[in-house]
Amino acid sequence: MVALEQKALAIFKELQVKYQAELQRFMNTNRASRRGTIWSNPNRAVHIAKSARHSTKLDISSTAEFKKIKYIENTGRWLGNGMILLDGAFRANSVYNDYKNGDDWQRSLSTELASFGASTTVGIATGTFITTHLAASTLLMLTPFGWVVAIGLGLVAGFAMSIGTNILVKKTTENIYDRKPIHTGIL
Q1: What's the CA gap between 43 and 30, in Å, rounded?
Q2: Do 13 and 66 fall into the same domain?
């Protein structure tokens, strides 16, 4: 294990020397977390290899393929964040309309805030879980199309769970606000 780790570090150093300009250009356009990526931090790559997580082999033979995968990832992130912003805007508009019409806008605000927080949290957790577990599938992740499927299914599952959670939390919050007992129909 130690010999393999030393070999990986040596290969990383060689990669840094031979492709320094390309890696620097890539790292400038694709920011990573503070821990870095396998391209910027050899210890990160060694840690991933040692961990219990199963990493799927992704054969990337050109910069164009890597850019496609990065584009798909960024598009998925943009779509997810955009859906959250759009949901927040609709909820804010609903509360404002209640305020304008003289309805009980405090009730509306409390139910919208509670259901927004819960549905967003559940939607993100579900989408992340589904996408991560599909990423473990070697057959799915070998192509950029596999990434589209994984991210798409993650978004759909997160959206569906978010809607279900929204309905449940909104009804529960309305009942609490009105101080009504919650009847679920289950004995």
Answers
A1: 19
A2: no
Express each pLDDT in 39-68 by its tens digit. Answer: 666 677 677 666 655 545 555 666 777 777
Domain range for 130 is 59-187
How is residue 181 annotated by DSSP? Answer: P
Regarding whether 161 and 108 lie in a shared domain, the answer is yes
> What is the value of pTM for the model shown?
0.56
Dihedral pair phi/psi, residue 186, rounded to 5°: -100, 130
Please indicate, yes or no, whether residues 65 and 145 belong to a single structural domain of this protein.
yes
Rounded Cα distance between 91 and 87, Å, is 6
Question: In the predicted model, is pLDDT for residue 187 greater than 50?
Answer: no
Closest C-alpha among 79, 66, 55, 78 to residue 29: 66
Among left, alpha and beta (phi > 0; psi -120 to 50; other), residue 78 is alpha
pLDDT in tens, 18-32: 777 776 766 666 665
How many independent structural domains does the chain possess?
Answer: 2
Look at residue 7 and give its three-state secondary structure.
helix
Residues 21 and 87 in one domain: no
Q: Strand ranges (DSSP E) for the chain?
A: none
How many Cα atoms sit within 13 Å of 12 on the Cβ side? 16
